[in-house]
Amino acid sequence: MAASNTARSDRLSATRDSARKASQELRGFFSRPMTSFYLVIMLTFALVTFGLVMMASASAVDSIIKYGSPYYLFNRQIMWAAVGVVALWVGMRVPLSFWRRISGPLMILSILMLMLVLIPGIGTEIYGGRRWFGFGPLQLQPSEVGKVAFLLWGAHILVRRKKQHNTWSGLLMPLLPGMAILAGLVVIEPDLGTTLTYLVLFLALLWTVGTPMRLFGLLGLGVLGAGGLAIWAEPYRLSRVTSFLDPWSDPAGAGHQALQGFYALGTGGLTGVGLGNSRTKWGALPNGHSDYIFAIIGEELGLVGCATVLLLFGALAFVGLRIAHRSTDPFIKLVASAAVVWQVAQALINIGYVVGLLPVTGITLPLISSGGTSLIITMFVMGVLASCARHEPAAVAHLKKKQMRLPSLLRLPVPRNARDSDPFSGSEQSARVKRAPAKKPSVKRQPVRSAPAKRAPAKRAPAKRAPAKRTPVRSEQPARGRDTRQRSARQNVSQERRRRAG
């Protein structure tokens, strides 16, 4: 008995030691200056790789039916992923100051593209929505470009108007009108899911700058009112809401996709039926490789696969908010926080309507669902997020001292300090005013108070000496000469007396 207790205590102590050692190693890993950068890259490629594997399984049946090859959609997704890798590198390579500088023109271009796509003959209509530009076999969705434009432009506007954040109008103008224009054009397409994404970006930017909760409450009431009108105006949106509330009321119509998603998730159980062994992808589940790919993950990989997806997006949320917290530049804070909230919220909305917590909106699962424009734009945003990680103060100081292998291999420039990389001189000048050369601060010279000089003793003028009385020098002349002089003096005196008497 004593021996068993001793063995048990030894195992417990060994477990504690290993746990303590693992905790120290993990703490040391997160204390490194380049940890955020490497985590963003690792999570991006992990999600893309996971998505390609599931894409190969979920799209095989649709590829055979539509294109005659089980690998057509998979091969096209690989091509988009290759383009996305280039977009990821561009997001890391190009300085953040450049994206900030062109955020205004990019916003205007996005609005023009969203207007052009609504014109028949220019925009391509698919599934009842005019949302794409067609270039032969390639398609471009301008609403995805608009998300990036609004992210960069909104962050730039909020930083420039930092002094006006004490008023509601200073916070909302011109951010709210810009979002309303983009969202209104997307609603006309129609695309309610992308409209919801614009709203998420708008709220994420306001949350990052510390908007009062009262303003959030008023905005929430306005969103509910506008959303209710948008749902009531279109019959298909209303049918989605009613099918969400009771999908079994119309199992062959509006509730068919939601019910098939439930069946797929329920079939998977804990570990799933095995990769490639899904049954619902054989025509039962519409859009199984795009909107409802999470249901295929749950069926083939079970709860373990679904938990893996949630864990990856949870790690992405942690890293993105960590970058925003550790950054000192306000523009980088806004871009990092809003970008990660955008991606994670989009994933949660997709998972939410697959499991029946939200109405079906058509939002894809980032980096996993099929879609060319969505994948490329998302990987570009991940590149921008990685660039934000390289601008953390600790990372900047580390990169200036030591050349890292991966950044040098990717030809990434050494980031400058946050204030040096700001093209708007503290974010208060206009975007069109060129940055003036910094003036050397004028230093006011304080008058140096010298100790009072000791007065030198006044020089006394030398006293005038009284002329010394000269004693007549008795000459050694003979007495004869002396008598002659006396005689002449007497004669002179006598003459003077006579003259006065006469």
Automatic annotation (TrEMBL):
Q: What stretches pass through the bilayer?
A: 37-58, 78-99, 106-128, 140-159, 171-188, 194-210, 215-233, 292-319, 331-355, 367-389
**Record's compositionally biased regions (Basic residues):** 432-447, 456-472
One molecular function GO term is: lipid-linked peptidoglycan transporter activity
Which pathway or pathways does this protein act in?
Cell wall biogenesis; peptidoglycan biosynthesis
Q: Where primarily located? A: membrane
Query: What is the stated purpose of this protein?
Result: Peptidoglycan polymerase that is essential for cell division.
What's this protein's name?
Probable peptidoglycan glycosyltransferase FtsW
